[in-house]
Batch of 4 targets.
Target 1
Amino acid sequence: MDLTSRIGNVVLPNPILTAAGTSGYSTELSEYIDLSRLGAVVVKSLRIEDWPGNPAPRLAPVGQGLLNSVGLEGPSLKTWIDQHLPRLRETGARVVLSVWGRTVAEFAQAGQLLAEPPDGLLALEVNVSCPNVEDRSSMFAHSAKATAEVVSAMRACSLPLWVKLSPNVPNLVDIALAAVEAGADALVLINTVLGMKIDIENRRPVLGGKGGGLSGPPIHPVAVRSVYDCYRALSEVPIIGVGGVMHGRDAIELMMAGAAAVQVGTANFLDPRATVKVLDEIEEWCATHGVDRVAELIGAAHSSDDQDDLHDVAADVP
Ligand SMILES: Cc1cc2nc3c(=O)[nH]c(=O)nc-3n(C[C@H](O)[C@H](O)[C@H](O)COP(=O)(O)O)c2cc1C
């Protein structure tokens, strides 16, 4: 079985990665799994300086999903490079760093710091799904212009840039296009869906940060649709699908929508072995369905017939 996954110039032994923020910064999952078995480990998003994150409580289960308002707590990029990256490399993991910023200038500083990246980094995930403090009304990822500015600012970094977008927009394809035109080498789709839970006895939002991001199985169809639409519009751009992957079949669905690789997030909180289980299930599914190369599945759900052109209009009718 050929499980090789290609994301532009980055070649991975298989298409399963961790999703940023769901497996820590370092070797946290190595107690449970051999990190070198994964396609790659994507670490929690880090900023040029350390950041305290949001007040507790930060997590709330909601139905089959999870609402979080961790608020991107973490050490500075420099501390992570000096203290955490070496430990992670010792496990044999292939490492993808994720970066966030509060302003375009902060992203640019991170890009400069990574102009000559430390050994052992495969790619840089640029998390634009974070608040833009110069325009408090939104996240960078809610605007094609702001997304493009961030990606351009990161171009000092010599690693492949994977840009992680937010699904909370009506024009995801336009934003994806702006990211690609600004220099994104791949798209990561999707970050969490905005949500909130209210404690009706206290009449207050449950999370310390009030609002949060919804993840897990409820957002899987949103991820599938996001990947499908972006693949259809930009089929030459590699896509990494993420959202509600609990089983191998969920990952296969994202690949058939157009993803070249898939990240597993919330599932790690339920079972820290989820990534390798998903990988084993993909391999099993391929074996029972006569698929020799997992890459055959990429975009398999797209047809070239004219009916497909009606997709947008038809799907938007309630
Ligand atoms: C607790 C938690 C923390 C997260 N932290 C980050 C983060 O630091 N950076 C980021 O880009 N995404 C972060 N995410 C979003 C995930 O990487 C992923 O995009 C999202 O949860 C959807 O995937 P899932 O349904 O498999 O969890 C976080 C998600 C959760 C649940």
Target 2
Amino acid sequence: MKTDFKRISVVGLGYIGLPTAATIAARNIDVIGVDINQSAVEKISQGEAHFSEPDLDILLRSTVSTKKLRAVTQPEAADAFLIAVPTPFIDDHAADLSFVEKAVRSIAKVLEPGNLVILESTSPVGTTQLICEWIAKERPDLRLPYEHRDKPDINVAYCPERILPGRMVWELVQNDRIVGGMTEHCAKRAKSLYEIFVQGEIHLSNAHTAELVKLIENAYRDVNIAFANELSILCDKLDLNVWDAIKLANRHPRVNILNPGPGVGGHCIAVDPWFLIHGSPDETPLMKTARQVNDGKPQIIISTIEKQIDRFREPVVACLGLAYKPDVDDLRESPALQITKTLMKNETAELLIVEPNIDELPASLTGDHVHKVDLDEAIEKADIVLLLVAHKQFAALDPRKINETVIIDTVGLWS
Ligand SMILES: NC(=O)c1ccc[n+]([C@@H]2O[C@H](COP(=O)([O-])OP(=O)(O)OC[C@H]3O[C@@H](n4cnc5c(N)ncnc54)[C@H](O)[C@@H]3O)[C@@H](O)[C@H]2O)c1
């Protein structure tokens, strides 16, 4: 499609920024990817991703070899800047915006009148406005849209990302997008950028609403998963099968209960609701309770396992899966990793860990009684099989093969 964006910079080349940069470059636009991680930049410059995501390597190889995508460590001038850097939380669950601030201050130096700046990082309401203020401090020569709503020099907008790891390359193009501008014109300008590669609908709003929308989407998921997790705790007490109960309840035409699991992990659902709760605790008791229910689930699983471990003299536990969700290599905030780490620290059993999506165990999992093994070995040697993630390799296993062993299925694959 025809566009006046000749050069687009993507700042932060992680799970979100890298597929975005490669997708735009594949539309024949010059893309400069910026990341402070030197080794990631080197890998990308060889046409390889520094994490695993289906179809991303093919896209990278072609866009890097045609020089449409270039990875660098320092920002360069461009027509538009998309910021996709981390937004974790700090100790009291406040959002840590330091990565966003540093990224914004670094691009401020190369901004030129007419540029567009879009924040994609999940952020508390008001962050896009802060971006304008940070730029204004670095560049008093530029008119920013929070003070100069009429014809600002720089257009600033917020556009949250909703792509699902494992399907990112496809969803980047197909998903609907919400674009919130600091002004109506900023929103329209940002929309014209996404039209380069998005085939889903692009909905316009203001920056504050777009920031809120992303947070409430994930809070909605968190609250609903908490309900499912609470049901699983209740069913354990009643000695009933929660999976059967949910399956039957979902036959009601207006009921759709989600799946319980070992907790809630990942960079988004376990983190983002705090951005609402921290700023407005009195208005968000339900969201806070949901966070506590989901955060408490790993400990409940650990207690269940420890009771089983007590039955054996030299117990061997197979821990199946470490990732925070099926078929990805992402261990961030993973309840499976948290449970495995606690079992390791408790030193009550030998642990055989199976995680088909990573080559080596993380540094936090080391010890004489911790081994990374393949699925067959784990099943053969274990007294207790603890299923933590519904990876496709585990789904393919016939649970009847392991019916001599104690099975603790936290994800409902074999239940
Ligand atoms: N991963 C997901 O599934 C997902 C989905 C939706 C939204 N998000 C949000 O998108 C944002 C990015 O997440 P991610 O998963 O891509 O994170 P990530 O950690 O995979 O990648 C972020 C990248 O930014 C780089 N970076 C940090 N500071 C920088 C700076 N000043 N300049 C340039 N690069 C810098 C890091 O080195 C890293 O490579 C977060 O706010 C996250 O909540 C993530």
Target 3
Amino acid sequence: MTYSYKKLFEPYKIGNVEIENRFTVSPMMISRCFDPNGAPNQEGINYHVERARGGFGLIITGAFFPDIEADPFGADVY
Ligand SMILES: Cc1cc2nc3c(=O)[nH]c(=O)nc-3n(C[C@H](O)[C@H](O)[C@H](O)COP(=O)(O)O)c2cc1C
């Protein structure tokens, strides 16, 4: 790794929470990662666990639809 990327490995804080590096997963979710009720299914869980184990400091989850009665959008996507 060249010196110019050193900053990516430095910790920072969001409020009181220390994030151990600056590598971030942007929100990406596809319909096969949640069940018909909008909750993450096993594939969706695996997707996030693999990235956490890979060392990303911050993972922003993609769209989940935990309450499809309040927000029926997810049902259309599925
Ligand atoms: C397959 C896929 C799924 C995505 N799902 C979401 C999502 O669930 N929620 C969201 O806010 N953005 C979602 N995005 C948008 C990405 O987070 C967005 O493209 C990224 O932040 C843009 O980064 P860039 O400006 O570096 O290209 C998705 C993008 C892709 C390619």
Target 4
Amino acid sequence: MSFHFVQMADPQFGMFASVSRYTDEDVAKRRARGLNVRKAPAPITGFADETRLYTAAIESVNRLRPAFAVVCGDMVHDASDQSQIEELFRVSALLDDDIPLHFVSGNHDVGEAPTSESLAIYRERFGSDSYSFDCGDCHFAVINSSVAFDPVNVPLEWRRLTQFLIDDLSAARRRGAQHIVLFTHHPLFERSADEIGSGWCVPAERRDEIVSILRDYGASAVFAGHMHMNQYAEDAGLMMVTTGAVGYPLGEDPSGIRVVSMREDAITHRYYGVDSTPEAMP
Ligand SMILES: [Fe+2]
């Protein structure tokens, strides 16, 4: 059985306004790190840009009619700003009722080093941050990669996360899942699964534990966001796809969405700018 899903990442309501307050020095510093930050002509308030982009993305999903859609984290820029949360949910509700929408927690949603309080607020708003679902003969698991990024305040949550993955993926494997796919916010690696690691990814020590579980149960692919730019890697059969932002882009590609095709023999995918999505599933 084959089907499509749409992956989105980082609608991040409030980021355009935040970037618009950068000084020339702030912009220069980020550009020196390879981030495509542009100096805004004037300070921005609110989130009209994010509303336009995420609405265009959701309208594309309605037209493409995938089996489901997923947002891989950083739904908002400032999780304490209720207006950003409300706008995220208002636009999300424009999605057709028969297309399931899955959320993945990002560092802007739960903090760089999550706390029990930030996790409780997230779970109240979005539901569980570690969960899974099946579609067709495939299995999809979602984890809170911010816990893996820095569990200093919630060490037990990190142990819960790895136990969840072991229990969940082993059960999926026993059931004979055709593909096992992981959704996270932080990528696990940028080029190879044994790299020293950059500040973008889950740190090597905990990345190694997650990758080892993925390998034990034969996971095919990981889809992430966080970098606001597209990046692709593969390591010993494990595909690592990092998808650019629906919101503010930090790479060369525009704000966009990814269409993923799940077939028995292969997982293929393609990124589209929100203003150049296809009329129907390719
Ligand atoms: Fe992020």
